[in-house]
Write a structure and sequence with these properties.
The structure holds two protein chains of two kinds.
Chain A lengths: L2 H12 L3 E7 L5 H13 L4 E5 L10 H12 L4 H11 L6 E5 L2 H7 L1 H11 L3 E3 L9 H9 L3 E2 L2 E2 L5 H10 L4 E4 L15 H9 L6 E4 L5 H10 L2 E4 L1 H10 L4 H16 L9
Parallel strand pairs in A: 1-2, 1-9, 2-3, 3-4, 4-5, 6-7, 7-8, 8-9
Helix pairs in contact in A: 2-4, 2-12, 4-6, 5-6, 6-7, 11-12
Chain B lengths: L22 E2 L2 E2 L8 H14 L3 H15 L5 E3 L1 H7 L4 E5 L9 H14 L4 E6 L3 H13 L2 E7 H6 L1 H9 L3 E5 L6 H15 L3 E3 L10 H23 L6 E5 L4 H7 L9 E9 L10 H4 L1 E5 L2 E5 L24 H9 L2 E7 H15 L5 H15 L7 E5 L7 H10 L6
Parallel strand pairs in B: 4-14, 5-6, 5-8, 6-7, 9-10, 9-14, 10-13
Antiparallel strand pairs in B: 1-2, 3-4, 11-12
Helix pairs in contact in B: 2-4, 3-13, 3-14, 4-5, 4-9, 5-7, 9-10, 13-14
Classes of the chains: A alpha/beta, B alpha/beta.
Chain lengths: ~270, ~425
């Protein structure tokens, strides 16, 4: 059984919810990302999304766009990211999901990328710019390697299409809390609960909600209706704020914020 | 001899590409975040209705004739041909279309689609500024809100077009990420559309992007080739032997080529920007020097590094300074129906000067690439062959930049 499935099955049987941080691999550098993964696990993360930097991330807002530009400037290529994953994997029990543009995967070859990712210790993939219509080859490759593959569902996705997307997904489905780009928001959209209820009728997969989830309070409200809350820009904004102060300062900042997000939640991977 | 009358239309479909999901063979498709799926589906549905609706096609035809000034002339450039030696060169004068380039053909058609979809705001990316000006013009004539995204490097080298857009009432949003050129402006426009699509239509300026954009832009630009084909039959008495057009994203080339696709005697030649040389980063010639990849929503030829990161590109011409190309060109490239070549910055500048001095016409630096290749080709052909060059835009916008280049680098002119 894939690690993502095992983690969510465990949560479900114990009535727990999951915290899913997003980290851009290589911001501020890969060594720090390695430390941040351990921080995330200690703070109660069940699964961590690891963003592989892309030169043209059209779905990302300014925080993650700048974060990826920084990571690319430091040489965080897919190969070096997977080397880092292989180093840190023995220290981690949480799931690791690679979030990577299909532009990169297409160039590397989806079979080769998925094989290398699996060998490094990645448990699942998200290709944010791969629609289900074009996903046949990728789904086969990902399933063949025993990895999970999660597709995104937008507020504008009609129910029948959402059912198809969930059908193509494994591990969990990624529900966008709102339209637009990644980035922090003050308020969660009204109607999110209703959308998730609707999705429950077409899929049994765990539902993870991301885009705009940026505070402890919002994480809790998301977890009232969803199985997992994804927090990305709010973390990477804090990384960016301390980037010039060195690795320790970045780690300290993220420890503090992640602890705040995880405080009082019964989450995390049973060690 | 039958003398057909030019009948501009948006529905010239000599073959059945793309398929329902926008594929041109292995290229095209719709590689976009799910958030945009509903918007592109709405556009495809609306376009399918519109192109069979006389209310749309008649309105567009009327605008093409009375607002844009179509048909644009097919002009025998006698002194240019003489200077080149060999085959006569005809120019399809898209530079004489309102706003000074072929871009208006697309912007007006897509603005009509925006209105049909009830969208009151339009956005566009622009490199040379010609698509931005055309879209700002369409916004003015239809009373729509308009934001144009433009890289800061392009704003510098195409300043007259920045002022023109602003005076037309559009907001020009400067983009200072990445290489500060067309690719980055396209990213910014796509990001805006991710947030704004319920009330905003994104008028992509070339035959690029996710389905249905490559098909819609090709169809709207096919008025060029449809007119040109009729004009050749009337003025020359037969079809031309060679069509030559510059390729950035490839819309002026697609518009010229497409109505000739089934005329197998007509050779189709796309001219990419060879920039300063063949090394990655020095040119903008994905069909000549790149490989299949995915960029801005479709699979086509792209310029990437080994990890799939989009490469830096360079061209003297802001409109060709783009690392991707329309998926249908990739399809024609692989099938051999069209061939693709490139000319360098300095060859394009020479052609710019040559057309001014032999014909009194200021070509856009983009179109100068097509001219540079056409004069070489003409010299290799006999006088009974004919070449048509798409003179896709006028070069008034380039005067300051050319003057700067001539002053600072004497090596760029011979």
């Amino acid at each position: 059984m894939n690690r993502i499935d095992r983690i969510f099955a465990g949560h479900r049987s114990r009535g727990e919810k999951a915290l899913m941080p997003f980290l851009t691999a290589g911001d501020p550098d890969l060594e720090t990302t390695e430390r941040l993964l351990e921080v995330a696990q200690r703070a109660g993360a069940s699964v961590c999304e690891l963003g592989i930097a892309f030169s043209d991330p059209i779905a990302d807002g300014p925080v993650i766009q700048a974060s990826m530009a920084h990571a690319l400037g430091g040489g965080a290529s897919p190969g070096r990211v997977l080397e880092m994953v292989a180093r840190v994997r023995p220290k981690l029990k949480m799931g690791l999901v690679a979030m990577v543009s299909y532009s990169i995967v297409h160039r590397l070859g989806v079979g080769a990328f998925v094989r290398d990712a699996e060998q490094a210790g990645i448990d699942g993939c998200i290709f944010p710019d791969l629609p289900i219509e074009e996903s046949g080859e990728a789904c086969d490759a990902v399933a063949g390697a025993g990895l999970a593959c999660s597709f995104l569902i937008a507020p504008t996705t009609p129910t029948d299409r959402a059912a198809q997307i969930a059908g193509a997904s494994s591990g969990f489905v990624y529900v966008l809390s709102r339209g637009g780009l990644t980035g922090e928001q003050m308020e969660l959209p009204a109607g999110l609960g209703g959308r998730i209820e609707g999705l429950r009728s077409v899929t049994d997969l765990p539902i993870a909600v991301g885009f705009g989830v940026s505070s402890r309070d919002q994480v809790r409200r998301v977890l009232e209706v969803a199985d997992a809350a994804i927090v990305g820009s709010a973390i990477m904004r804090r990384v960016a704020a301390r980037r010039d102060d060195g690795q320790d300062a970045v780690v300290e900042e993220v420890v503090e914020f992640m602890s705040e997000l995880g405080e009082g939640l019964i989450t995390g991977v049973s060690l | 001899m039958v003398m057909p009358t030019p009948t501009p239309t948006t529905d010239t479909r000599p073959n059945d590409t793309p398929d329902r999901e926008g594929h041109f063979g292995p290229y095209g498709g719709s590689y976009i975040p799910e958030t945009l799926h509903a918007a592109v589906e709405q556009l495809a549905d609306e376009y399918n209705r519109a192109r069979q609706d006389p209310a749309f096609t008649d309105r567009l035809r009327d605008l093409q004739q009375h607002y844009v000034g179509r048909p644009t002339p097919l002009y025998l450039a006698a002194r240019l041909s003489e200077a080149a030696g060999g085959a006569p060169i005809y120019l399809k004068r898209e530079d004489l279309a309102h706003t000074g380039a072929h871009k208006i053909n697309n912007s007006l058609g897509q603005a009509l689609l925006a209105i049909r979809m009830g969208k009151k705001r339009i956005i566009a990316e622009t490199g040379a500024g010609q698509h931005g000006v055309a879209t700002a013009t369409a916004a003015a004539v239809f009373g729509l809100d308009c934001d144009v995204f433009m890289g800061t490097e392009d704003m510098r080298r195409q300043r007259p077009n920045v002022l023109r857009m602003q005076m037309l009432g559009a907001r020009v949003v400067s983009v200072s990420s990445g290489s500060c050129t067309l690719k980055d402006a396209t990213n910014a426009a796509l990001r805006d559309w991710m947030e704004s699509s319920p009330h905003t239509h994104y008028i992509i300026g070339s035959v690029v992007g996710p389905h249905p954009f490559p098909m819609i832009v090709r169809d709207l630009q096919s008025v060029i080739g449809t007119e040109c084909r009729s004009q050749c039959l009337q003025q020359i008495g037969r079809l031309p032997d060679h069509l030559v057009a510059c390729i950035g994203g490839g819309s002026n080339a697609a518009g010229l080529f497409y109505p000739f696709i089934n005329d197998e005697s007509v050779k189709l030649i796309g001219v990419e920007a060879g920039g300063r040389g063949p090394e990655l980063g020095q040119h903008a010639a994905p069909l000549c020097k790149g490989q299949p990849g995915i960029l801005h929503g479709s699979a086509s030829y792209v310029l990437q590094d080994d990890d799939g990161q989009t490469a830096d590109v360079h061209s003297i011409s802001a409109g060709l300074d783009y690392p991707g190309v329309g998926p249908e060109h990739a399809y024609w490239h692989d099938s051999g129906r069209a061939t693709y070549t490139s000319v360098t910055d300095s060859q394009a500048l020479d052609a710019f000067n040559q057309l001014m001095r032999t014909e009194g016409i200021i070509p856009a630096l983009e179109s100068s690439h097509a001219l540079a290749y056409a004069t070489q080709l003409a010299a290799s052909l006999s006088k009974d062959q004919t070449i048509v060059v798409n003179l896709s835009g006028r070069g008034d916008k380039d005067i300051d930049e050319v003057a700067r280049l001539l002053q600072t680098d004497s090596s760029v002119v011979s």
